[in-house]
Structure prediction request, 123 residues.
Amino acid sequence: MPKITFKNPHGKGSLPMVVEAKRGESILDAAEECHARVGHACGGNLACSTCHVYVEQGLDSLGEIADKENDIMDKAFDVRPESRLGCQAKVADEDLIVEITDESLRAWLDENPEERKKLQKAL
Prediction:
């Protein structure tokens, strides 16, 4: 099984998290299973850009970006050549290193206000 290393799984400065993923599973689904904080305001239905991630290793194994994903990516912040939407990027046979973007982390906290409150109390 391929492995995904999530950088910043619980916010900036958190230790990376390594999980096994099933071939054909989306990066977003893998993140959900291991509780990595990847936003998904639209529920992973390709209607927003909150699951925007940077694929630092294994990008070529994910397949081509479809036109619809490219269109939605226009809504994302700080888009780079290694940018993908986690709901659309399907795991193949290679291991991946994925950095969760600041945008996605903020979206996740917006989607989980109780966790945002806990974080604010801790600071």
User: Anything to note?
Assistant: The chain is about 30% helix and 20% strand.
